[in-house]
Amino acid sequence: MTETSSGPAVARRSDATRGAILTAARERFAADGYERATIRAIARDARIDPSMVMRYFGNKEGLFAAAITFDLRLPDLAAAPREDVGRVLVGHFLRVWEEAEVLTAVLRVGITNAAGAERIQDIFKEQLLPVARRVCPDPAAAPARAALVASQILGMALTRYVLRLPPSVALGQEEIVDWLAPTVQRYLTAERP
After folding, report:
1. Closest of 188, 174, 178 to residue 80, by C-alpha
2. 3-state secondary structure 81-109
3. How far apart are CA 41 and CA 178, in angstroms?
4. Under 8 Å between Cβ of 141 and 147
């Protein structure tokens, strides 16, 4: 099989189309949420035919799973004093959540959609679980400890950024850190009950 001179050009065009679709999808999912975002609107934003979105990603769930990748940029906790791990993590999560609307979109979708829930599970399994394994006294319990940390972080994010409960929204970031850090610290570093 011989390669034509158009081979690399077609591959570049294909990568550019895929990239344009993913960029449009991220923006649309963040702005509209999963349920209201449509393939047609995403295609329009990417300036392509909707059939191309389907060709590359199969369906809306496939597109969502491909579009919503997020690096939490978790800090290296080895540099933090062991007694400050909870404080460092909570502060970091709040900063990331304030900066990244995509996390709010993922949480919104995760509540009502299997693909969204799976994406949240992947993000926390791939990024939070290794951190828990490094800092907890019993690495075998790391999955349970990471799940407890996630319950605190996601609970605050749900009430503050999705449901926008006024008392939660009114709290300052430092106040939230003061409240949540001791609990997250205990989940990660305390001996098992």
Report:
1. 188
2. CHHHHHHHHHHHHHHHHHHCHHHHHHHHH
3. 42
4. no
pLDDT, one tens digit for every residue, the chain (193 residues)? 444 445 666 566 788 999 999 999 988 887 887 788 999 999 999 999 999 999 999 888 889 878 877 788 888 888 889 899 999 999 999 999 888 777 787 787 778 777 778 888 888 899 999 999 999 999 899 999 999 999 999 999 999 998 999 999 999 999 999 999 999 999 999 998 8
Predicted TM-score of the model (pTM): 0.76
Q: Tell me where in the chain the CATH 1.10.10.60 domain(s) lie.
A: 7-67
Neighbours of 53 (CB within 10 A): 25
CA-wise closest residue to 89 among 127, 126, 119: 127
Sign of torsion over alpha carbons 38, 39, 41, 46: positive
What is the distance between the terminal CA atoms of the chain, rounded to a whole angstrom? 65
Residues 126, 68: Cα–Cα separation, whole Å? 14
Between helices 60-67 and 39-46, what is the axis angle to 10°? 50
Side-chain-side CA neighbours of 119 within 13 Å: the count stands at: 27
- CATH of span 7-67: 1.10.10.60
